Amino acid sequence: MESQRQSKRFLYLYALAVAGGSVAYVPFLTILLPNHVTAFADEGALKLLAQLAFAGAIAASLSNILFGWASDRSGSRRPWIGTGLAFSSLLLPVMHLATTPLHLMILIICWQAALNMMLAPLAAWAGDSVPDSQKGILGGLLAFAPALGALAGALVTVPEIASDGGRLVIIGLLAVAMVTPVLLFSRPVPMPHLSTDADQPDKPLAQRNATRSAVISMWIARLFIQIAEASLFAFLLLWFRSVDRNFSDNDAAIIFAVVMAMAVAATLMIGRWSDRAGQPILPLAICAAIAAFGLLIMAMASGLRLAVTGYALFGLSSGIFLALHSSQTLRVLPKPATRGRDLGLFNLTNTVPSLIMPWLTLAMVPTFGFDALFVLLAELAFAACLILMTMPGGGHISQTRQ
């Protein structure tokens, strides 16, 4: 029954926990890891980063599906979330002790597995607990995740706040402080109707095919946007420094944090509107188009001001897109019994680009420059816009639970 609504307590604590997951990896992968790699592989930093991204993405892909499936089978999400939080937070500070690329790669693989032991069941828990009528506002609240992840990056890179190892300890403690409350105090309103199979065999074939087609469209559109995200995620700092040699890691963290903070307010507003207007897909298509425009500006940027402007447009629109997409994906998944596993398959849109794009970046940038890469990414973002605008239902996804 869609008339039943989830409590604000759960929604807020859940959003805080998802933000804690973002804090657990964003500052490390975007800033601290590149700095650590540069420290002992200066000339080969770009290649080593690509190798680490490749190995980490494989570990994240497999473990997300595995632990999503395990939480489906066990019928409980909390124990997996808590265990993954504990192991990932303990492994993070150990990264600083790695002195060779092999040691660092092994630690990253283990850390990614532990991190996804937490993230996979956490994502599925929203599908168990949040009805379709609140998925827009859920998407708005999820926008806090990258914003707080970026803010944590800005905090830990403040000069002299801590040693490199101390920064990793701070990140781990922040993640624990943000995820633990939802495990202990959230008390979600039971939503048994969200565990009812929406893809029953007695439904008309056309309706079941439309549902599957919508799932595929949502998957491909997110993949295209995530390819652009993955290309910038690890190499953004290096690109800014190619535009301005004096650009610092703290400068990158501050810009990242400001853009993500702007995305929070915008996503909350757009999410509320999409719930009320019954238009869950239209904002995604518009954001994909704006992301393409921002990437084209980045391709043309010859100075820092235009570079920051282009990135701000891309970062803002893609941040809104990914937050809203994460919640609206729960609307189209047809089988609650395999929700964790299916979200793990959707998570491939996050990890597969990390397998592909580092190598494409290495192949393209030395020969053609970052501008050619950004043009290619803009084409993918525009393709995502077209896919969403033409998906079944014309942007009006019907309620999956009645």
Structure write-up:
By secondary structure, the protein is mainly alpha-helical. It has a single domain (8-180, 203-389), classed as MFS general substrate transporter like domains (Growth Hormone, Chain: A, Up-down Bundle). The protein is built from 14 helices and no strands. It has helices at residues 8-40, 45-74, 78-91, 101-129, 135-142, 144-156, 164-185, 205-243, 249-277, 282-300, 304-332, 339-346, 348-368, 370-389. The chain is globular, with a radius of gyration of 20 Å. The N and C termini lie close together (6 Å). 53% of the residues are buried.
Salient structural properties:
Growth Hormone, Chain: A, 78% helix, globular
Give the helices and strands, then pairings:
Elements: H1 8-40, H2 45-74, H3 78-91, H4 101-129, H5 135-142, H6 144-156, H7 164-185, H8 205-243, H9 249-277, H10 282-300, H11 304-332, H12 339-346, H13 348-368, H14 370-389
Helix pairs in contact: 1-4, 1-6, 1-7, 1-8, 2-4, 2-12, 2-13, 3-4, 3-7, 4-12, 5-9, 5-11, 6-9, 8-11, 8-13, 8-14, 9-11, 10-11, 10-14, 13-14
